[in-house]
Amino acid sequence: MPRPTPDAPHDARPTLEAVAARAGVSRATASRVVNGGAGVRQPLVEQVRKAVEELGYIPNHAARTLVTRRNGAVAVIIDEPEVRIFSDPFFSQHIRGISRELNLYDSQLVLLLVEGSGDFDRVTRYLAGGHVDGVLAFSLHTDDELPAVIRRFRVPTVYGGRPGRPDTASELAVPYVDCDNRGGAREAVRHLVSLGRRHIAHIAGPRDQTSALDRIDGYFDVLPDGDPALVADGDFTAEGGARAMAGLLERRPDLDAVFAANDLMASGALRVLREHGRRVPQDVALVGFDDMDSVAEATDPSLTTVRQDVVGMGRLMVRILMERLNDATAEPSSVITPTELIHRASA
After folding, report:
1. 34-70 burial string, b = 16+ CB within 10 Å, else e?
2. What is the mean pLDDT of residues 113-138?
3. pLDDT band at 65 (very low <50, low <70, confident <90, very high)
4. Which of 20, 162, 219, 300 could form a disulfide bond with 202, CB atoms 3.0-4.6 angstroms apart?
5. Can you give the pLDDT at residue 329?
6. With bands split at pLDDT 50, 70 and 90, how would you rate the model's confidence at 7?
C-alpha cells in the first residue's frame, strides 16, 4: 500500500487560509481575530472562532506578537533561595493565584529565581531581550538590585509586598499588593493580651523585608514598653523559628505567650516549647501569621494565626499588571488587603 504523501488532507496542519475560507472572511480578517487584533465586527469574530474550533487551528505565536505587540508571557521573579521557595507553602499559594489569573488572560508564567547577586546578570539579560510583557516580583529585600533593573528597562511591574519603607521613592513609582501586616500583628498581640498574658514574645522575620518590619511595628503598637529581650529574629523558616524560640526561653524563661511573624516559624517554636516541657496553650499561648493550611491545621495543637489571602493577592497582582499593559497612561495603584485572626487551639 502506498505511503501517504506529506500534503495528504489527514496529515496537513490547518492553515489560516483554511480558517478564512471556512468562516467566509478574508485572510486579513481571520488574522486579526485569531491573533488578538481589534476592529472586527462581533458576528465575524464568532464565525472565525467557530472555524478555528472546527478545524483545530493553532495560532502562530510570532504572528500574534506582531499584531498585538505582546509576548503572551509574564515573568514572576522571586528573590529567595530555591530550597525555601519549594518548601514554604506561602510561595506555592502565591504562584497558584498568579497562574490561575494568568490563564484567564491566555498568558504564560515564566518563573525566574534569584538566589544571589550573580543571578541578576541572567535576569537582566532576559528582561533586556523583551521576552515578557511584564513582571510580578515578590519577597524583595531592602538591598535588592531588581527594582533598579526593572526601572532601567521600563518593564511594567507589580510588586508582591511593599517594596520599601514608606519614605522611599520606589514605593511611589511601582504599584504593589500587600496585606495589612501591621494591623494583623496588632490584632494577634491584642488577642494574647486579652487572654491575660503578661510576657509576650515576638519571633520576627528578616529585618530587610518590609512585611517583617511592619509586623514588628504592630507588636510594639500594642506593647510600646515591651522588653527588647522578648524579641528574637528569625528567617521565616521553621528552623529559624526554633532557634529564636530557644534563645527566648534562655533569656526570658518567664514568657507566657509568643507571636511569630509567620506560621512556619510558629511551628518551629511549638516544637521547641514541647521539648522544654512547656504546654501550649496552657503555659505558653502561640499565634502565627499567614494561615497556611498545610502548617496551621497540621500542628498539634492547631495554630491560631492571622490569615492573609495569599492566592487572592496573587490574582490581584495579575489584574493590576494587565490594567497597566492595556493602558500605559494609567496611574499606578497599590492595594492593601485586610487580614483576619483565625482562632484555633494554640491561643
Report:
1. bbeeeebeeebbebbeebbeebebebeeeebbebeeb
2. 82
3. low
4. 219
5. 74
6. very low
For 138, the 3-state DSSP assignment is strand
Q: pLDDT digits over 271-294, tens only?
A: 999 999 999 999 999 999 999 988
137 DSSP β-pair partners:
77, 159
DSSP code for 40: -
Q: Which three cell numbers stand for residue 243?
A: 532557634
Q: Is the pLDDT of residue 13 over 80?
A: no
Which pairs from 43-49 meet CB under 8 Å and 24+ separation? 47/23, 48/19, 48/20, 48/23
For helices 42-55 and 27-34, give the axis angle rounded to 10 degrees: 80
Q: With 0-12 CB in 10 A as exposed, 13-18 as middle and 19+ as buried, what is 201?
A: buried
User: Rounded to an integer, what distance in angstroms lies between the CA atom of residue 177 and that of residue 88?
Assistant: 20
Gap between the Cα atoms of 137 and 321, Å rounded: 11
Q: What is the mean pLDDT of residues 322-330?
A: 81
The residue behind cell 501550649 is 280
Residue 47 is placed in which grid cell? Answer: 464565525
Which pTM value belongs to this model? 0.77
Q: How far apart are CA 206 and CA 84, in angstroms?
A: 14
Asked whether the beta carbons of 156 and 325 are under 8 A apart, the reply is yes
Cell numbers 490581584: residue: 316
Q: How far apart are CA 341 and CA 290, in angstroms?
A: 10
